[in-house]
Design a protein that fits this description.
Layout lengths: L2 H25 L24
Protein name: DUF2897 family protein
Keywords: Membrane, Transmembrane, Transmembrane helix
Pfam family, one: DUF2897
Length: 51
């Protein structure tokens, strides 16, 4: 197997792993909005309804 092919595959794998780690760090800084009836149409989908 060609050495450059092996080096290329290793670089691609390391780039994928590092990219995912950086993406996780960036998204961990964002806060999720609190779910309320105003911003979620299916908020009360699982509540018991009196029929």
């Amino acid at each position: 197997m060609n050495i450059w092919l092996v080096i290329g595959i290793i670089v691609l794998i390391l780039g994928f792993i590092i990219g995912n780690i950086l993406l996780l760090q960036q998204t961990s800084k964002n806060k999720l909005p609190k779910v309320t009836k105003d911003n979620n149409a299916s908020y009360d989908r699982f509540e018991d309804k009196d029929d």
